[in-house]
Amino acid sequence: MIQKFFNVGRRSFLAGLAASTALPLVAMPGRALAQEPRAGGTLRTPAWPAPSILNSAISTAGPETFIGPKFFDGLLGYDFGMVPKPSLATSWEMSEDGKRVTFNLREGVKWHDGADFTSHDVAFTFLQVLKVMHGRGRTTFGGLLDVETPDPLTAIFVLERAEPGDDARPRQPRKPDPARPYL
User: Quick check: 177 pLDDT over 90?
Assistant: First the structure.
């Protein structure tokens, strides 16, 4: 008798699978349909394993690099196709020789304690934290010689040499190539 109970044919299995898939759609039809987007709310997402620290500037572990950007903004963000877009820097420009990048910082940004975010914070973060403490910092920022701070809202990156890909002009996203879907 027990053997017959577990003996399920292909048609019975597929019918059960279809029914179990369709049941949530029938039980909650409003949720299955697209809803109008609305601002606000809370997004909960798992991070496993749990991060040991919340500052991705000093860690290269997976959970920290996943969660860190939710807490800290960078000078730039990136749109689709890795096209740079403003974040803490409202604009940026590169010198003709490609060895200096000037970032104009967003005004009115505050730290958690109410102190103003300034170009001195940018210099400290890149020269003392990322370049020294981050696991890939020495390599990634090896060509960064200095960060000049002529005023509180201007940070000038001084590079040893022009780096490949250092192009201050906005780039267009790469069009998908069906022959090379993973590139």
Answer: no
What does the alpha-carbon distance between residue 177 and residue 183 come to, in Å, rounded to a whole number? 8
β-bridge pairing 100-105 and 89-94: antiparallel
Q: Cα torsion at 61, 156, 143, 59 (round to 10°)?
A: -10
* Token pair in block for residue 18: 């279809």
State the Cα–Cα distance between residues 52 and 54, nearest whole angstrom: 7
**Tokens describing residue 95:** 């010198």
pLDDT over 90 at 110, yes or no: yes
Predicted confidence at residue 26, as pLDDT, reads 62
φ, ψ for residue 78 (rounded to 5)? -135, 135
State both tokens at 103: 């970032």
Helix (H) or strand (E) holding 11: helix 10-27
* pLDDT greater than 70 at residue 29: no
